[in-house]
Design goal:
Oligomer: single chain
Shape: globular
Largest sheet: 8 strands, mixed
Radius of gyration: 23 Å
Helix content: 25-40%
Distance between the termini: 51 Å
Number of helices: 15
C-alpha cells in the first residue's frame, strides 16, 4: 500500500543516502536484495504519516486514566461518534496511543480547490486543520462556507494568491472554508486563525487545537522514550542542551516530580520563549530556560552569582543532547529540500555540542544523545567517534528498549549495536488502517505496530566513568 509518492531528494543527497544504505557491512550482513528492499521501504514510509498519534500525559497535574477518559470524550465528539480506541503503552506509562485511520481512498474531490504549503500539508496529514498562513492559493470565487478539496504543493512552486495551480499537488482531503478568498488574501495584512476546517481528511487523526492544553503534549513516541532513558531523579541538576520547543524538558521535569533543576537551553530567542510558555502551561516550576549557544556553554572560570550559562565543568548529573540534525526521519515528508552540503554540516556541529556535554557532565553522570534522522554520519558514526575520543565514556543499556538495534556501517561491534536504539519505520509493512482492521486487531499487536510505525529516530546512552 502506497498512497503518496516516495520521498524525493536532491540528486547528490539521493546518491549519498544510497551509499549509506548499501554500505559494505550492511550488504555483507543482509545481502544486496534485502538491504535494497529495506531502503526502498524506508523511502515509502517517510512520505506517509506514522500509524499512531502519540500524546504524553502531564502526570504532574492529572492521572493517565483521568486524561484518557477526557480525551476519549473529545475524540468521540470530533469523529461524530465513530469508535476509535485509545491505548495505554505498557512500557511508557505516561503516553496514550490513538490509531490513525487511513489513507481513506474513497473520498471524492470537489471543483473548488485550496492549495497549501508543504509544511501545512504535513500537519493536516497528522490531524491539523488549515490555518490562514498556510494557504497559498484558492479558487477564484471561494466563499465562506464552501466545500473545498485541499491539496499540498509539495515542491514549493505555487505563488501566494494564485487563482489556479497546475504544478505537482497531493490530495489531503476535503473541508469547509471559514473565510472567503478576499479575506484570506486581505491586503490589510495576513490573517491568523482557521482557514479551512477539515471534515474529510485523507488520514483521520484527532485535532489537538486547544484540546486539554495543560494535560496533554503532542509528542512522537521516540521523543518520549528519550526522557525515560535519561531517567532523571528528583533533586538532580539536568541539562537539556537543545531544548526547544520544550517537549523533552517538560517531560524531564515531570519525571522528576518538579523537584530539582532542569536547565533548558536554545540559541533562538523565540524558541526559548516557547519553552517558557510550555513550562508555564504545564505548571512546571523547576525549568530554567536560557537563550544560549550550546557550543559555548562551558565556562573557563567561575563568575559570581551567575545562574545561567556558561557553566563550570562537571556541573550536571545528567545531560540530554537532542542534537540539531538533518531531520530525515520526520514523517510525513514527500520532498526533502536540504542540499548535501547542508546535510553534512550537522556532524561537526554535533561533535562540538557533544564535547561540551562531556565536559559539563559529572563523573558517574549519564549523557543521552539523540537525533530524528536516519544517516550513519549523525548516528552510529558519532557513537564510534565518541568512544574513540572520550575514553571516560561507556555505552549503557537502554530501558525501555523499544526500537531496533543500531545500523551496521560505522565499524561498531554487534554488542555495541545492541546497546543503541534506532527507530526504523521500514521495520514494518506499510499498511493502511480502517475501522474493520482496527476492530479485528489485538491490542498487543497494535502497540507493537506503534513502536515501529513512528518517525525515524536514534538514541545512544553513555555513562561518564571518571574525570576526562
Amino acid at each position: 500500500m502506497s498512497f503518496f509518492p516516495k520521498i524525493s531528494f536532491q540528486g547528490e543527497v539521493e546518491k549519498y543516502l544510497s551509499k549509506v544504505f548499501r554500505n559494505n557491512e550492511l550488504i555483507t550482513a543482509l545481502g544486496t536484495q534485502e538491504a535494497e528492499s529495506k531502503y526502498q521501504s524506508l523511502l515509502s514510509h517517510l512520505s506517509h504519516p506514522p500509524g499512531f498519534t502519540t500524546v504524553r500525559v502531564n502526570t504532574h497535574l492529572a492521572s493517565v486514566e483521568h486524561v484518557k477518559k477526557l480525551l476519549f470524550e473529545e475524540i468521540q465528539k470530533q469523529f461524530k461518534g465513530l469508535y476509535v480506541p485509545i491505548f495505554e503503552h505498557p512500557k511508557l506509562q505516561d503516553i496514550l496511543l490513538i490509531p490513525v485511520i487511513g489513507p481513506r481512498q474513497d473520498l471524492k474531490s470537489h471543483a473548488s480547490e485550496v492549495i497549501v504549503g508543504a509544511q501545512c500539508g504535513y500537519a493536516v496529514l497528522r490531524g491539523a486543520h488549515v490555518y490562514v498562513p498556510g494557504i497559498l492559493s484558492t479558487s477564484r470565487f471561494l466563499k465562506a462556507g464552501d466545500v473545498v478539496s485541499v491539496y499540498s504543493d509539495i515542491e514549493g512552486k505555487c505563488k501566494r494568491g494564485a487563482k489556479e495551480f497546475e504544478g505537482v499537488k497531493v490530495f489531503l482531503g476535503n473541508g469547509i472554508s471559514e473565510l472567503s478568498r478576499s479575506e484570506i488574501f486581505s491586503s490589510s495584512g495576513p490573517l491568523n486563525g482557521m482557514g479551512i476546517r477539515m471534515t474529510e481528511p485523507v488520514y483521520l487523526s484527532p485535532s489537538f487545537d486547544n484540546v486539554l492544553p495543560s494535560h496533554l503534549f503532542l509528542q512522537n513516541l521516540p521523543s518520549v522514550v528519550v526522557s525515560h532513558i535519561l531517567n532523571p531523579q528528583p533533586g538532580e541538576r539536568i541539562l537539556d542542551m537543545c531544548a526547544a520547543p520544550g517537549g523533552k524538558a517538560t517531560h524531564l521535569a515531570t519525571l522528576m516530580h518538579d523537584q530539582g533543576e532542569v536547565i533548558a537551553m536554545d540559541k533562538t530567542a523565540n524558541k526559548v520563549k516557547k519553552i517558557k510558555q510550555n513550562a508555564e502551561l504545564l505548571q512546571l516550576n523547576c525549568i530554567k530556560a536560557f537563550c544560549y549557544d550550546g557550543t559555548k556553554a562551558l565556562a573557563v572560570e567561575k563568575r559570581d552569582e551567575q545562574e545561567g550559562p556558561p557553566f563550570l565543568p562537571e556541573s550536571f548529573h545528567r545531560i540530554l543532547l537532542d542534537a540539531p540534525c538533518s531531520g530525515m526521519g520526520q514523517r510525513p515528508n514527500m520532498v526533502y529540500s536540504l542540499s548535501l552540503k547542508e546535510v553534512t554540516s550537522y556532524q561537526p556541529l554535533q561533535r562540538k555540542l557533544f564535547t561540551v556535554a562531556v565536559n559539563l557532565l559529572k563523573p558517574g553522570g549519564v549523557l543521552v544523545y539523540s537525533t530524528c534522522t536516519i544517516t550513519l554520519s549523525e548516528n552510529e558514526e558519532q557513537v564510534a567517534w565518541a568512544l574513540r575520543t572520550f575514553p571516560c565514556l561507556q555505552l549503557q543499556p537502554q530501558e525501555p528498549h523499544i526500537g531496533g538495534e543500531g545500523m551496521r556501517g560505522a565499524g561498531l561491534s554487534l554488542a555495541q549495536l545492541k546497546l543503541l536504539q534506532r527507530f526504523d519505520p521500514s521495520a514494518v509493512t506499510l499498511q493502511g488502517m480502517d475501522i474493520n482492521s482496527l476492530q479485528d486487531s489485538k491490542e498487543d499487536d497494535l502497540i507493537s505496530l506503534a513502536n515501529k510505525d513512528c518517525i525515524g529516530f536514534f538514541i545512544a546512552k553513555f555513562m561518564k566513568l571518571n574525570s576526562k
